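Quick one: Ligase-associated DNA damage response exonuclease from Sphingomonas qomolangmaensis, structure tokens please.
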Amino acid sequence: MSPGRWIEPKPEGIYIPAADAWVDPSQPKPRALVTHGHADHARGGHGAVWATPETLAIMDVRYGEQAGHPVAYGQTLRLGEVDISFVPAGHVLGSAQIVLDYAGERVVVSGDYKRREDPTCAAFEPVKCDVFITEATFGLPVFRHPHTHDEMDKLLAALRAEPDRCVLVGAYALGKAQRVIRELRVLGFNDPIYLHGALQRLCDLYVAHGVDLGELRPAAGVAKAELAGRIVMAPPSALNDRWSRRLPDPITAMASGWMRVRQRARQRQVELPIILSDHADWDELTATILEIAPREVWVTHGREDALVHWCAQRQIKARALDLLGFEDEDD
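--- reply ---
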């Protein structure tokens, strides 16, 4: 008999009848287990939410105060007949894999995850299981992410090469912006970094949870001359709008795993692509499956077909899930 028959993947999320709860539902539900705070996984309006304290804090910022039940990494709770625990996913602050134990079987819902070191969040922890539900955002062999420090060095080299300009870095507001800032600090870049207002609240939240981002200043109202030779962070939507026109001839950069695709960089009018992803690349996805060695792999929100085919070639039973509402997030 196939494992995981007590799990019901539905278009709006993963339903667990024995717990009467949903994992990352895209519609309001009475009971939701949430892997992390990105909007395509964490929605407002649920009757009750179980998540890590950090994820609940992110949801409070985005949606208002939640009916939240904080679950620390490694803590086990019981809903109905299911034992549930949260372990780090390495994606963003507070991100978790949700481990479900029932009837002698274990299912791990990974949410989004990466295997690279990230100084802003806890590292991914592999968990042996019967069914591993994996993302496949970058589930094609073409996606092999470069070394993080090489990409940060590229950003700093551009800044030094043209000190009369600023480098405007587009980065997703949750996770990516804070990671870029912290990676620069790790490399010894201690100058003030200027922020678009849309990034301020989540940067403040990271700092409140112990992530040292160094000196951050609002970019609004700052004279153009003061921003020359500086790094300015903004959401991707601000890269080419009216807001950016007040900057001193910006070198437009974007931090995203999708910058591997040249056409995406051209479409965004990005002068300096920074290939930096908060998702596992192809090698990391496949290595994780081999390390965990589940009886079955369920693949979701991404390039499912290639990963399912890879599993089949290795006699690993796999299937694609058709979940709705999961997006690329400007990774």
